[in-house]
């Protein structure tokens, strides 16, 4: 059964039974009946109740067994203790799906979770799909279908439009579509998934992606219960060029007890989630207002690649405000070409024409000049997006019609450009602008954020759709804990290059190793039980001669005995001292939801204090690795900033690729790997892992 056919009966039903139907339109079992009657549901509603022969003027039936035929779906609005029996009855009637309003399940306690599992078991035995339990339901206003008990419709009905909502929270979804209605934004369809015993938010998203009448997917999630369906939906949305704007709560970092890995301490839950959804071009909103701003502007279906913003304003102060917002977001504001500046100065000599282009309020005396300025910004300026700020003046009856005509004419001449207005007017005035496709924001900074989001969608859609890699090669993990030297020997078989080094079990071996490697050297305590050697003074840099090696060997063993008396000591690692390199960190962290995730960043203060790192699911290809390297703020240090030689970024990218492939093939027993630091040498010199740590789940714990 395809996803579409499985959920069509839920989301686009032609007939629906209401189990626990009420004659009172204010009760949970009565609202769906009332709403569908008021909205002219194109299908048939079949109330089921023991208490009445009719419900709100419709013939009622005493039981599921007495229904005259098998409906597409059913609404279950009965106490939790009765749900299992109702689902069994529906299943025996071959009903393919049900919307379960009833609460008192997994959201309450363990007993409720067990009861929910029991309901799902019965549903699956009949091949039924369940939405919920503990869901507010859904609505599909296109067909007048309202299997929901939300009170929000007492204030009005959803407007026509092309935004669809998929939400785990019913209350927040109601807040969003009520706000949308108040802002004249059309959200004709919404699916809330509740406890997600069966149908997930990812499946709801994918249905909306497949729906030809939905252009924008708006998602609210508190936590992703099924990564596979979620990623499938993101993949489908990207392939269909349907933008996804998302709000996710619960930005918690991983607890320090999760693993010893340095990477896991940095790659928190929300950081990993953000990295994964960013692969698909998902834009995350931080407020309900921003959520709707982005979704609304996305319905224009103009997603600029290499976005730039040209600003036309009658206020210099607003131009500065917009410039600050662009700088914060990294949205480019290139200067107008010199020739265009000269031409605009001829129109209004005292205008500021660089960008933002301040034509001053004087332009309101000669409204056709506005069109000439807009033409110049779009045409000669070549900006992909144009924001016009006209404050309350643009919304007045004497100005608005001509202003609208002038900007719309420029828009018609450049239909591939994103034109946005910032003004204050009556609902009727703003509605007239929006009817022309000129979306209106009263706050210009909100407009800038939404415009920037359109460019992020455009950049994502310009890239190939990310595909989840299927690896056939399984990596054999070592047994038991490894010291640093053993870890590096294991890593080398996967093509990961390491600093030249030797293990020494005594002072004589250490001196011999140092002389063979070449002084100066680095000495490190060797133990499978000490993950962070520098924290106990277990690393000595720039050891210059044999006497220093002898002294250092004894010093390291003494420090280990004092600070980690229970640790197993395997001797000392003697490694070549590398000069002229840039220190980086590479790590793998096993995310509970998305599997292994690779982290890259510069070492030292960049990772410890600035958290200047980037993350990506494993495995990744060379192009992705290079994009990650160039994305961090400290990238110029690798690219040859201020006269420094460029580093071997190609070798670094290949190390990232190989580490990611290793992690992807290793399975969940691999909790993490740290390569810190990785020393990147000047171009052509390669890169070397100077330290390595592997964190493994004990074999016993990994067995089922």
Describe the protein.
Helix 21 packs across helix 23. This protein is 38% helix and 19% strand. The strands form 6 sheets. The protein has a 6-stranded mixed sheet with strand order 8-10-9-11-12-13, sandwiched between helices. Strands 23, 24, 25, 26, 27 and 28 form a 6-stranded antiparallel sheet that branches. It is flat. It has 5 domains: 134 residues, NAD(P)-binding Rossmann-like Domain (Rossmann fold), CATH 3.40.50; 150 residues, 3-Layer(aba) Sandwich (Rossmann fold); 161 residues, Rossmann fold (3-Layer(aba) Sandwich), CATH 3.40.50; 77 residues, Dna Ligase, domain 1 (2-Layer Sandwich), CATH 3.30.1490; 121 residues, ATP-grasp fold, B domain (D-amino Acid Aminotransferase, Chain A, domain 1, 2-Layer Sandwich). The chain is built from 24 helices and 28 strands. Strand 11, helix 7 and strand 12 form a beta-alpha-beta unit.
Largest sheet: 6 strands, mixed
The CATH architecture category of the largest domain equals: 3-Layer(aba) Sandwich
Helicity, as a percent range? 25-40%
Radius of gyration: 31 Å
Spatial strand arrangement across the major sheet: 8-10-9-11-12-13
Mean pLDDT: 93
Quaternary structure annotation:
single chain
Give the uncertain stretches in residue-range form.
253-267
Topology-level CATH name of the largest domain: Rossmann fold
Broad shape: flat
Query: How many independent structural domains?
Result: 5
- Structural class label: alpha/beta
Q: How far apart are the first and last residues' alpha carbons, in Å?
A: 31 Å
